[in-house]
Amino acid sequence: MKLLWLSPNLNHYKAKFLNHLTLDTDIDLTVLAGTGRKNMGDKESEVESKFELITTNVSKDKFGFSKLIRKELSRQFVNFDWVLIPREKKNLLLFLYALWLKRKARWNGRKVQLVSYNHPLIKSGIVRISVLDILLTRFYYKMYDKIIFYTKGSCELMVNSGVINSAKAFWANNTIDTKEVRNNYEFSLPNLEEPTMLFIGRLIRSKRVDLCLEYYFVLKERLKKKGKTLKLIIIGDGPEKIHIEKALLYDTTIEWKGALVKEKEIAPLMKRCSMVFIPGHSGLSVNHAFSYGRPYFTVRSKDHAPEIEYINQGINGCILGPEMEKNIKKLEDFFLSDNTQMSRNAFDSGKELSVENWCKQFYASFII
């Protein structure tokens, strides 16, 4: 089976799991890639691709409107059985063009089908879902041949809501390169005598590194009174780094490592931490924490990606409520207790979210 995957932003996460899809399944993969996002904390991928890669000098925000992309898609289209175009509002023009190419191919006796791998609903901005978003989502789901959702829960939600025909709906748990994690890390329990928070992700407003720092300073003082020294490690880069730079002026114990993408660099830091805490938008960072056997904590929000459903409340992590004082008490109790069972539970959850399982689920979506 030949698949053309259009990727406006081919980051290191995606490049790694697409390599596994190429090596571990019968999918003959080609990726048509853009240059991604600018000045948003993304680190350029240094991953050697095992798939055929067609690169273009088109940024993510212009990808769906680019004449160059349409021209390349037209040139490549009939060479594939499936073409994956991300189901996004900004890709509507590109998708309509692909529908025309699909009809044209059929006139010439060639069957090419369209697929997307995505969240359940289109959103205007990060949180708000408008009537237009719902109508456009329904249009997309009617016109695509298949939709693969990031999680089982997302798939069931769309089917049960009548937004998509169940015959078109599939799921493959979105993940990271867990194989690389295993090559660089052997599970170990955190040191209870050295409570440590870890923040990992792009330093953009939705991730709320500013709020993470606010929690840290309050918790540090609370734990100090109990004879414990709380530490904070931050992995990431982006426009919100200004908050870290300010914090470092009066607390030099904060460890800011910048953007890291290699697990051999991330592993020693994950090993040291007691938990991962991202009070803002949470997605693949949940998988990342679980793959190392570290509980994941965040604050309840409509902003979260579907991966948030992997959190089993109080078992492998916690979704905190809106009241900071109550959240501080829960976090304080976590650091003062024997929290090792939660780490074991997180590690078990990580096994279910392996890249091997993702490849099986993704490939099965095409052959069922």
What does this structure look like?
The protein has 368 residues and is an alpha/beta fold. Helix content is 42%, strand content 15%. The protein is built from 14 helices and 13 strands. The chain has helices at residues 12-24, 60-63, 67-76, 92-107, 131-143, 152-160, 178-184, 209-225, 241-247, 263-272, 284-291, 324-336, 340-352, 355-367, and strands at residues 2-7, 28-33, 52-55, 82-84, 113-118, 146-149, 169-171, 196-200, 231-235, 255-256, 275-277, 296-299, 317-320. It has a seven-stranded parallel beta sheet, sandwiched between helices. Strands 10-9-8-11-12-13 form a six-stranded parallel beta sheet, sandwiched between helices. α11 (284-291) links the parallel β11 (275-277) and β12 (296-299). α11 crosses α13 (340-352).
Q: Specify the structural class.
A: alpha/beta
* Biggest pleated-sheet summary: 7 strands, parallel
Helix content: 40-55%
Averaged pLDDT: 94
Strand content: 5-15%
Radius of gyration: 21 Å
Strand order of the largest sheet: 3-2-1-4-5-6-7
Overall shape: elongated
